[in-house]
Amino acid sequence: MQTIAAIATPPAEGGIAVIRISGDKAADIAANVFRPVNGRNISEMKGYTACYGEIHDGGKRLDDGVLLIYRAPHSYTGEDTAEISCHGGVYVARRVLSACFSAGAVPAQAGEFTKRALLNGKMSLTQAEAVADVISAQNEQFLLCSKSQQEGALYRRIKAVSEKLLTLVTLIQAWIDYPDEMEDEFDGNLEADRLRSVSDELTRLIESHGEGQLIKDGIPCAIVGRPNVGKSTLMNLLTGTERSIVTDIEGTTRDIVEETVSVGGVMLRLADCAGIRETNDVVESIGVERMIKKLGEAAVVLAVFDLSRPLADDDERLIKLLDGKRVVCIANKTDLEEKADVSALESRFGSVVRISAKDPDCLDTVAKAVAAVSGLGKLDPGAGFIANERQRLCAEQARDAVNEAFAALEGGMTLDAVSVMCETALDRLYELSGEQVSETVVDQVFRRFCVGK
Ligand code: GDP
């Protein structure tokens, strides 16, 4: 395999830039472009050692920097690797890279370092996929989840299912081939139960895809309530900015203002909506229509009510619109005299979060309620989840095959037929984990990566 090289840091000015070289000739190529000031022989450098020196291209001195050597298999790729840190200029990094090419390296393809790590058995396909997710993580929760994926959380979960299925297939095969030698009678009900439990676990796995997406992109969340209850004040508090205009003239928030924020570790895509109110104002009625649409798209709704005023017909209208939604019911303006019937809200929503949106200390209370209602606050980042479409498709195909096997068993089809369906499911699971996967699929996975990773 050829020795590859690429700039591993972003193409922008920065403190340092790192040029990564991986393959059998990594140390030789480094020796060609890097001259340690202490005269050290690079080919004799041990793994995890570094030296300071000058970087040259032919006879030309380009820069000074640090060389770090890794020895196979104790490197990211599993191959000999050299990393040259030079000054973080775009041009100087490119020049150092081209010096590496002149010395015999070839340009690395997108994700090729990680692909080599996969091919050298340093990580599974799902772990490699998680590397891309760690890089793209925009919030704490998704980073934690992706990090445990990278450490093998999903792989272990798939492995547990595939081993269960493999045991089942082996047993069925034994009953087919050596019926007389089996100790127990074939128990169709028991095997059907086993298939059902595999199917259930696959369903949970498939559902984890939706949760993963919500963690990654944020939960679509609408802030609703009739005019002047304090929606914009709450939105501003959550976002820490003055994006929504707060006034005490009813109907000011005419449009939806959207913002992504992290509340209690859960990422929310917040929409502050026009107040719900019967209106003849054309501009505002468009806002109300949009609010109803937004409500349909929201996975969690922050429904705000004004404690200082009795509940009005518009509040009742809103309550009806919230049927079947995950709602955090917020009773705002605790600093004023209470005139609303909070018990009515309690009986409808179970619990009511009392706050004064003018008091920044309420943020913590709101955050906890949002985390609890969204269900994501309880999510175990270490549990492993389906992180992308490729994985979801494999898991769905595996579950379909298991369900077919279940139906075949229940329908009295031959054990051979059941076994074939279970094997199809196993193939899909091996594809999911990456244990049995075509080159085309691997290439597709790494197309998502940047060059240098
Ligand atoms: P929206 O129409 O629902 O977006 O309501 P706003 O956020 O614009 O607030 C309407 C009015 O209520 C403004 O004058 C706010 O300053 C005021 N307000 C919001 N929250 C509170 C609160 O907790 N206590 C008090 N006393 N006033 C509040």
Please render the helix and strand layout as text.
Elements: E1 4-7, E2 16-22, H1 26-33, E3 34-36, E4 49-57, E5 60-70, E6 81-87, H2 90-102, E7 106-107, H3 112-119, H4 125-136, H5 140-150, H6 153-177, H7 188-217, E8 219-224, H8 231-239, E9 257-263, E10 266-272, H9 282-297, E11 300-306, H10 313-321, E12 326-332, H11 342-349, E13 352-355, H12 363-374, H13 389-410, H14 415-433, H15 439-447
Parallel strand pairs: 1-7, 8-10, 8-11, 11-12, 12-13
Antiparallel strand pairs: 1-2, 2-6, 3-4, 4-5, 5-6, 9-10
Helix pairs in contact: 4-5, 6-7, 6-14, 7-13, 13-14
The protein binds guanosine-5'-diphosphate.
Report, as a whole number of angstroms, the end-to-end distance.
18 Å
Major sheet, described briefly?
7 strands, mixed
Proportion of strand residues = 15-25%
Morphology call: flat
Q: What Rg do the Cα atoms give?
A: 29 Å
Unreliable segments (pLDDT under 50, ≥5 consecutive)? Answer: none
Remind me, CATH topology of the largest domain?
Answer: Rossmann fold
CATH architecture of the largest domain: 3-Layer(aba) Sandwich
| Tally of discrete structural domains | 3
Structural class: alpha/beta
What is the β-strand count?
A: 13
**Going across the major beta sheet, what is the strand order?**
3-4-5-6-2-1-7
CATH superfamily of the largest domain: P-loop containing nucleotide triphosphate hydrolases
Ligand kinds: guanosine-5'-diphosphate
At the first level of CATH, the class of the largest domain is Alpha Beta
* Overall pLDDT score: 88
Please provide the ordered H/E string of secondary-structure elements.
Answer: EEHEEEEHEHHHHHEHEEHEHEHEHHHH
The residue fraction in helices comes out at: 40-55%
Give the helix tally.
Answer: 15
